[in-house]
Design goal:
2 copies of one chain form a homodimer. By secondary structure, chain A is of the alpha/beta class. The first copy, chain A, is about 45% helix and about 20% strand. Chain A has helices spanning about 10-20, 35-40, 60-65, 85, 105-115, 155-165, 175-200, 200-205, 210-225, 240-250, 255-260, 270-280, 290-300; strands at about 1-5, 25-30, 40-45, 50-55, 55-60, 70-75, 90-100, 120-130, 135-150, 170-175. In chain A, helix 7 (about 175-200) packs antiparallel against helix 9 and helix 9 (about 210-225) crosses helix 12 (about 270-280). Chain A is globular and about 50 Å long.
Chain lengths: ~300, ~300
């Protein structure tokens, strides 16, 4: 499968490397890592075992890649304004576009530009960080849930899941992409938001009862917002406790938004917090703590 | 009137200076400012006109002061554990104790130690900051509302109000001290809390719609908490808008809790946020945003 990775950060580099290692024909659109990767290759430090890809196809311009079978989109959501410029040259008649980005609204934006029938959404439960140029660090997890934006060709998505499974990634297909997106938000909203605001990793938050309670309350607000969206089946409140326990095992993990703030990058407040708030409000669900968190995050970057 | 100032910070120094200037016999218990004030006096930089008191009675030990007619308590509330040690030596049979401290729970703690009949509460609406040792900066406002902790001798409080009025301070007496305390909390909770958390002065908060809305929502939670406390008359929701407009005129003002955080001091989270939350909860009122703010403030000092 001829694959282009657009948005080759911690997520794009990691999955792109796995896909190349398992035999796919992978082409990375690069910026910061261009020189390092095209001269020295890509090094993956992974809890599943380190490996190096000495020869990697790296590009600065999507036109040099040309059309592909699959575009894997790992861009930060605040770069969604560049979809047309970055993905347009890659999209032929049968190109599928898979977004593994955070938050809500990405499939919609891609569908608007490239047609809804070719859009596949994926929710990646991945702990990874960028390292030095040419390096990516995989700290844990990695499973992917894939789903079509508009259900039309289940077989196509099953095939794509098989491609990911072949790399060793736990990949399953859902008929309710929206539910999977909201499930991830149950984790992403409190931990990305609070860790970025307080500049503390997840274990510091969870070590203090009042803060752990706040995380849980935020999760319950997100679950209420999710369950108002007409999901195939509701997310149980117990999912919050499952996520808390799951996070207890992560140690000193810094979510991406915390790292974005530390490194002076923009934070994905719009996709991860404001979009879910708007979807909730459309269904009459207020999420006061989520809204307060969004407002505080916006305010610290003033 | 023989008066001891215990807790000679921005508030204690300012009112103590006004009382001495108007002819009262004022004795300051000092720590940081002891050397500066006992050798060079006390300088007041005030929007109402600067003045200097060249000779000020300063002490390091309350036993040197002996008993007084009035103890004015301006301590940070996290120092309330020192009430006995600091105020005990000053309290004779007829000594009145006036607390102008922030938040809730101070009269209760003083009453427990010294008897409820001698406790007077005061709510000071004052914008002031400490400057260099021996200096205090009065940036605006300054009015005081006085009330007895347990109503028993209105005349005594009227007399005290007259003493303050003689200094030029707008001072009135209330029969509902609790209501005045909560009125001040309507301002104190959002502005002290958010400015300290975000490390931004009030004008930066109010310049952005989402944050201004958050301030107002927090105010409405506090008003709901207040109105569950059996006040003589409820605080109207419009009070929130009055306070917002009032704060618009303050410019780049930093509330005391923000300065405490900047200077690495403890913050008055217990008295200003946690105590009102507990009083609200006793009456079945949840204040989710106030609770989130308290939790975030506690967490940033971990």
């Amino acid at each position: 499968m001829r694959i282009a990775i657009v948005g080759a950060g911690a997520l794009g580099l990691y999955y792109g490397a796995l896909l190349q290692r398992s035999g796919e024909d992978v082409h990375f659109l690069l910026r910061r890592d261009y020189d390092a990767i095209t001269t020295q290759g890509l090094r993956v430090f992974s809890v599943n075992g380190d490996f190096t890809l000495p020869h990697v196809h790296g590009y600065r311009d999507p036109a040099e890649i040309g059309t592909v079978d699959l575009v894997l989109v790992g861009l930060k959501t605040f770069a969604n304004g560049s979809f047309s410029e970055l993905i347009g040259p890659l999209a032929g008649d049968s190109t599928q576009i898979l977004t593994l980005q955070n938050g809500l609204g990405n499939e919609e934006a891609l569908a608007e530009l490239f047609g809804e029938q070719r859009i596949i959404g994926g929710v990646a439960f991945l702990c990874s960080n960028r390292g030095e140029p040419g390096e990516v660090h995989h700290l844990g997890e990695g499973r992917i849930v894939l789903g079509e934006y508009r259900l039309c060709d289940r077989e196509r998505v099953e095939h794509l899941a098989a491609v990911f499974s072949k790399t060793g990634v736990d990949c399953r297909v859902t008929d309710d992409l929206k539910r999977s997106r909201w499930e991830k938000l149950v984790w992403n909203i409190p931990f990305n938001g609070l860790c970025a605001l307080l500049q503390q990793p997840v274990n510091i938050l969870l070590a203090h009862d009042a803060c752990r309670k706040l995380v849980r309350e935020i999760m319950l607000e997100v679950i209420a917002g999710a369950n108002a969206q007409g999901l195939t089946r509701p997310i149980a409140e117990g999912y919050a406790d499952t996520m808390l326990k799951f996070t207890d095992d992560m140690g000193e993990y810094k979510p991406s938004m915390q790292i974005d703030r530390e490194e002076g990058r923009q934070m994905e407040i719009a996709a991860i917090l404001r979009a879910p708030l708007a979807y909730g409000r459309q269904q009459g669900i207020d999420m006061p703590r989520v809204e307060m968190l969004a407002t505080l995050l916006e305010q610290v970057t003033r």
